[in-house]
What we know:
Order of helices and strands: EEEHEEHHHEHEHEEHHEE
Strand content: 25-35%
Number of strands: 11
Number of domains: 1
Oligomer: single chain
Distance between the termini: 51 Å
Shape: globular
Amino acid sequence: MIEARSIGYHYPRGRFVFxxxxxxxxxxxxxxxxxxxxRGKTTLLRCLAGLLTxxxxxxxxDSPVSYVPQSHGATFSYPVADMVLMGRSRQLKAxxxxxxxxxxxxxxxxxxxxxxxxxERDYAHLSGGERQLVLIARALAAQCRIMVLDExxxxxxxxxxxxxxxxxxxxxxxxxxxxxxTHHPDHALHLADDVTLVLGPEDVRTGPAADLLTAELxxxxxxxxxxxxxxxxxxxxxxxxxxxxxPARPTSTAEGIP
Length: 258
């Protein structure tokens, strides 16, 4: 649904952020982009979404794309319901106002993301995590067949992380193409079918998640020892990624604390 062929990008009078990147995000599949900070993950995602034009290569899409940024400030004060309704603007004719169906779809999106209780709140006064959920609802209301998300759970607590990851799984199962960046390899293992690892401008690797999200490759990507472990979760076995964060805090021997 989105295909990038040998794309590269550089800022004016700057070095290439990445070069010769070829990847595709397909209908009904989740494609995760991982890599250290400053390696161009967001820039690559914005190229896929059509917000930036590559300096070389091509990006093609057979469907409109909805985009969810990592963060978003509010210049003006809008109710949350109106922010989500803005996702319908692509479907409106020039100078037309949203109709009953548009408002119904916006309400459905709020409900599906689980934030109906925020609909009358001022978007400018929400927390960063709440804004992120509103932006996801806005993208959902657009009813595009492709959704591109930049760090969609970075500002969310554990409960809302699970809510968003489950939602993205459901959308992919319904046939939507999902592309996202993440700093959580275990989320990519849980969610993604395909992965792009951005190691450097000339070293971008793409393939099945199971092949690329190994302890050895993640150690190379992040420059510190990484191990993986299989654990039994509430919904069955899962693979966790465990980075070496340095010496662990000594275990307390105080009474009542294990």
